[in-house]
Amino acid sequence: MNVHHILVDDGNPEHRQLSICRSGTINRIRLEDPNYRVYASLEIDPHDYAALFHYRVIEACNALPFLSESSNGLDSWDEAFLHRSNLGRLAAILSDAAGKIGQQKSETIVLGWQDQPVAVAYLRKIDPQKTLEFLEKLLLFVSESEKEGCDLEFIL
To answer: pTM for this structure?
Structure first.
């Protein structure tokens, strides 16, 4: 079987349109607000989105009691809310995950594949330093949210 591969390049507009090229947002909100209001947002670009799953950060975060329509916690097709009382635990999980990421070695991961019309594997290079920089931003965002008495909404 001949399998072609595509290395996803975020600089290529055609690649950014692939359904396998996912991104997300984390919003600072207050669940008790009568009107939905976003106080601040943190964008998750396609690289960091894939890295969060690759390094099992999302899996580790699922130990927290996320509220979601599907009741699946943080999965890749749902929005999920985390109450402010759990932000300290979230920060600990993120710090622990950052400590486990090796900084020297970039990796190439499989995002997904298709069989038809031809067999194609979609690959992405993961830069651990970029991932660590994102986790630093996320930790700061979580800390600020906790200080402001806000909850978080994850749109993945």
So the answer is: 0.90
